[in-house]
Amino acid sequence: MLPADLTLQNFSTYPAGARELAEKHLEILKRLPLSFAPLLLKELIVLDFRFHNCA
User: Are 19 and 49 in contact (CB under 8 A)?
Assistant: First the structure.
């Protein structure tokens, strides 16, 4: 899938914080280079998990 093909549905399984951020900035994510988009999207998930599960 190309970044330009991203839709809101693609983020339905993301953790809440990552999903909200991705959906809010969908148009920017669609313009990312193909080599960078997967890395950034993975980091959204990881960072959401780390921030919400540290105690």
Answer: no
DSSP 8-state code for residue 25? T
| Whole-number pLDDT of residue 53 | 73
Strand, coil or helix: 12: coil
- Tell me the torsion sign for CA atoms 45, 48, 51, 54: negative
pTM of the model: 0.83
Position 36 scores a pLDDT of 96
Alpha carbon separation from 17 to 13, 44, 46, 55 (Å, rounded): 11, 8, 11, 17
Q: What is the CA radius of gyration of the chain?
A: 11
